[in-house]
Amino acid sequence: MMRYSLTDAQTGPAPAHDIGIWLGAVGPRMLNLIGRKADGWIAPLGSGYETKPAGQDRIDAAAQAAGRKPTDIRRVIQPVGAVTDSVQTRERPSIGPGTQPILTTPEVWARIIAEFVHEGRFDTINFVPQHEDVEQLTRFATEVIPAARAAIAAYRQHE
To answer: What is the C-alpha separation between 44 and 48, in angstroms, rounded?
Structure first.
């Protein structure tokens, strides 16, 4: 191990809040580590949708074994796709790579996102546009997000 000395180094101001440690991992050892120690899990894009429920369960079990509440660990899913004017994707993907594009209308996007939150146990959605452009980001922000928030609220009212 190499060590370096920083004589007279200035550290800068302390952060205004705690800085969380988030991990993107799929292996059992790493998922256990997330449950025991991490602040959040970023479900990797390349992992299959079918692996995510078992990953959630493993994180929850490891958290409980470590005396933590599973709900203290934030969960991010990163759907790839595009907001379109026609429905090509009708349902939330449950199998296949996380990189498969979801191509659908704002209304269906909202339902899919609500299902990721309610059924998939994710609390954060990181939209990854299939093709980055201002129109896609604008449509997602102005059409999908408000509809998704309403759909999530509707799910919670029925719990």
So the answer is: 9
CA nearest to 125, candidates 134, 136, 116 = 116
Residue recorded with tokens 């299959």:
48
User: What does the pLDDT read at residue 3?
Assistant: 78
Residue 153's pLDDT band (cuts 50, 70, 90): very high
**Residue 65 and residue 104: Cα distance in Å, rounded?**
40
Residues 55-91: tens digit of each pLDDT = 999 999 999 999 999 999 999 999 999 999 999 999 9
Q: How many CA atoms lie within 13 A of 123 on its CB side?
A: 10
Mean residue pLDDT of the chain comes to 94
At 97 the three-state DSSP class reads strand
**Of the candidates 99, 52, 101, which has an alpha carbon nearest to the alpha carbon of residue 75?**
52
Return d(Cα 23, Cα 44) in angstroms, integer: 9
Q: Which two tokens stand for residue 15?
A: 């952060």
Give SS3 for 35: helix
> Amino acid letter at 69?
K
How many other C-beta atoms lie within 10 A of the C-beta of residue 35? 23
